[in-house]
Design brief:
Blueprint (H helix, E strand, L loop, with lengths): L1 H27 L9 H17 L11 E4 L2 E13 L2 E8 L10 E5 L11 H7 L4 E7 L14 H15 L3 E6 L3 H13 L8 E5 L11 H8 L2 H7 L2 E2 L10 E3 L1 H11 L1 H16 L3 H14 L5 E2 H13 L2 H4 L3 E2 L2 E2 L9 E7 L12 H5 L8 E6 L11 H17 L11 E3 L2 E2 L1
Helix pairs in contact: 1-2, 2-9, 3-14, 4-5, 9-10
Length: about 425
């Protein structure tokens, strides 16, 4: 009943949240003399912090309406080009300048780990000037009726394969964090079947390929608890009146609580600073805080079967690196990958996927030629910095774009293997 109590608590606070928002608007109105006093700003700040910490954050928008190509600003339009009950495939369609040569077609597989695909807004934005970008927009499981069936790790692999088939030959796939495992598995399944629509290159970023290497707190929790513990303690049924009523899920608010508890002091300091900035009427830092937490606090539910199978296969049994992962009754064999170039990217300070866990893909994919491999370790970034932020835009995104161009099926050439911080060997 925990999920039901959570919903009841949210509903019970709704009148207080509405009253707080109304009072905040009244005291923040410049026509109100108190809005120009420390008392007025302190009261307004207190009301806003209360409202923001008790609201449910809806799915954000990508909001990417333009990009720069060849020094010109061009418009960008979001278009759903493929859909299934648990995922939409979004194409960021650019209005290309006349005579512009074809850019690499990149499928970004966003993580299904509690946050929406919009968490990768910065990833998409950094790649748009040099690539034709598509992204998986996973659907909140609480919004999918029970009549649509189940969705597990094997279905995830099938979805990736179907999307690659839809996009056609010479597509490059980029997996951010959690999907590194199903994307590598999909590539192995396609190569083993001689599928001509297998991706030209595969970029795995901050992913848990082998969590036995340099385990983090997240990995340790899965190791210390049996699978039954997760089924009994974190799987709940979606409450009425949501469309997914009675669907067993891993609620997004539980995942968010876990993420925040890992750096609770940092989040508390951030909210204290937000309050101080509001009182001082310091608008820019306060707006940055709103933008970040509007995204960070927007979470979605995962289907129970996908969550439990992922915990079991990826974090407890380490099935992929051991060669024991199964897909539709067949063993997934990473050594079957021979024609897909592989780029692995890690962050030096990653506290979610430890250093070496993603690089493990280079070890288990034994038959990829050396000239089709590259590994990059970005110094001074954590998990988020692997796919977002200034260092991603400056250091990582250009490497991804260069790698996809080097390994397009229309003309491959040798590329150096970057080991760390721009050092190559």
């Amino acid at each position: 009943m925990f999920y039901q109590f959570y919903e009841l608590n949210h509903a019970a606070l709704a009148p207080f949240r509405a009253a707080a928002d109304m009072m905040r608007l009244a005291y923040a109105n410049p026509l109100n003399p108190l809005s120009h006093t420390v008392f007025g700003r302190t009261l307004t700040a207190s009301l806003e912090v209360f409202e923001r910490t008790t609201r449910r954050y809806g799915k954000p928008e990508f909001g990417l309406h333009q990009t720069q190509i060849e020094g010109k600003t061009v418009s960008v339009h979001e278009k759903i080009v493929w859909k299934k009950p648990f995922c939409n495939l979004i194409h960021f369609e650019r209005s290309l300048p006349a005579g512009h040569s074809a850019d690499p077609r990149i499928l970004i597989v966003a993580p299904m780990s509690g946050h929406y695909a919009t968490l990768l807004r910065g990833t998409v934005e950094a790649l748009l000037p040099g690539a034709d970008v598509y992204i998986t927009d996973w659907i909140d499981a609480r919004m999918v009726p029970m009549t649509e069936g189940t969705f597990d790790l094997e279905d995830y692999i099938d979805y990736v394969i179907e999307m690659l088939h839809h996009l056609g030959p010479d597509t490059h796939v980029v997996a951010v964090c959690q999907p590194s495992v199903p994307v590598l598995a999909a590539a192995a399944v396609m190569e083993a079947a001689g599928d001509r629509l297998a991706p030209s290159s595969m970029t795995l970023m901050g992913g848990p390929i082998d969590t036995r290497i340099n385990p983090t707190a997240v990995n340790q929790l899965a190791k210390d608890k049996p699978l039954e513990w997760f089924a009994d303690n974190v799987v709940m049924n979606v409450p009425w009146p949501q469309p997914g009523f009675m669907r067993p899920v891993y609620p997004g608010f539980l995942q968010l609580s876990g993420f925040m508890s890992m750096n609770l002091d940092r989040h508390m300091i951030a909210h204290k600073d937000f309050f101080v900035h509001l009182v001082k009427n310091d608008g820019e830092p306060a707006e940055k805080h709103r933008d970040f937490y509007d995204e960070y606090l927007a979470v979605m539910d995962l289907t129970a079967e996908f969550y439990l199978q992922t915990v079991d296969q990826v974090f407890i049994k380490h099935a992929l690196p051991k060669g024991e992962l199964m897909h539709r009754g067949e063993r997934v064999d990473p050594s079957a990958i021979r024609n897909i170039a592989l780029l692995t990217v890690e962050g030096e300070n990653d506290d979610i996927s430890g250093v070496g866990q993603t690089h493990a893909a280079q070890t288990i994919c034994t038959n990829i030629p050396d000239h089709m491999r590259m590994h990059y370790l970005q110094p001074d970034v954590g998990h988020y910095g692997v796919f977002n932020g200034s260092r991603f835009r400056r250091e990582i995104a250009p490497r991804i774009l260069a790698f996809t161009r080097e390994h397009a099926r229309t003309g491959r050439s040798v590329v150096k293997r970057v080991i760390k911080g721009g050092k190559s060997a």
